[in-house]
Amino acid sequence: MTEIAEALPVSAASSVARPRSDPRTVLRDYVTLTKPRIMSLLVLTSVCAMVAAAHGAVDAERLDRCRAAAISAMPTAAAHRKALAALVSQKRLPGTAIRSDLRELVNLSLHCRAALDALGPTVDRRAADAIGNKVLVELREATLTYLAIARQRGDGSTEKSRAAVVSHLEKTAAHAKSLEALANESTGEAADTLGASMSKDVVGALHLTSLKWTTETDRAV
């Protein structure tokens, strides 16, 4: 096939390598790529905002300033686009077990935030936020550590990642117990309020996760 292409004239070789497309297909692809509906909506909203900011007075000078501001912002937008493309193109974490563990860590953080919101009306908010911040910081460190080790290994195993974050989970559970104690101090011993119950649930979930991951790690070793 290579010899045949080299023997053909340039025009003929081009026609073999690149068959001519239907003009209607080309036009349809062009319209699809340019997204006229979205672009027209962007232009309309930008014009409306500009007119509102100028109180209805739009002149050439104002248009030039807007154009210059848009041009100056384009390099930053292009850099952000490249960073986003690089993030999207990163290799996905292998294995459903790793994604399940990360989902569990995120759910623990969400559960803690919900407990803090529920405790708000019944405890000292500043004290609760201080303890809750310690819990969330430890959970964030655990999540980032787990993710870093999982990406470094790249084989889909969870033993090393779990073993590395057990200490963070234990510290988090200790802080969460302080949050539970704060709820009981403010509303009475073993208070039966939503915030106290959710704080107790957070402590239990952290303890179970830490115990499960420690046991499975020891069993794998």
Instruction: Tell me how many strands there are.
Output: 0
Radius of gyration: 29 Å
Q: What would you call the shape?
A: extended
Strand content: under 5%
Number of helices: 9
Sketch the major β-sheet.
none
List the quaternary state of the chains: single chain
- Proportion of helical residues: over 70%
Which parts are unreliable, with pLDDT below 50 for 5 consecutive residues or more? 1-19
Mean pLDDT metric: 77
CA-CA gap between termini: 58 Å
| Count of structural domains | 2
Q: How would you spell out the order of helices and strands?
A: HHHHHHHHH
Classify the secondary structure makeup into a structural class: mainly alpha
Question: What is the compact description of this entry?
Answer:
This protein is mostly helical and 221 residues long. Helices cover 82% and strands 0% of the residues. Residues 1-19 have low confidence and may be disordered.
Folded structure, characterized:
This protein folds into 2 domains: 2-88, no CATH class; 96-220. The longest helix is centred in the middle third of the chain and has 29 residues, at 60-88. The chain is extended, with a radius of gyration of 29 Å. The protein has 221 residues and is mainly alpha-helical. The protein has helices at 2-7, 10-17, 23-34, 36-53, 60-88, 96-119, 125-153, 159-187, 194-220.
